[in-house]
Design brief:
The chain has about 50 residues and is mainly α. It is about 65% helix and about 0% strand. It has a domain of about 30 residues.
Length: about 50
């Protein structure tokens, strides 16, 4: 059964939706994007 469609205006919405469908392609893509954002934030903090 497919999950209910939801509005996704912010990345926090994507995180919440992905948490409801673990192991899905969407959840894997959101996880990869979150890790990239985290690495970027860590690297930005190191250069300031």
């Amino acid at each position: 059964m497919l999950p209910e469609l939801r509005d996704m205006d912010h990345f926090s919405d994507a995180l919440e939706i992905a948490a409801g469908i673990p192991g899905s392609g969407f959840a894997q893509a959101v996880e990869a994007a979150a890790l990239q954002f985290q690495r970027f934030a860590v690297n930005e903090g190191a250069t300031q």
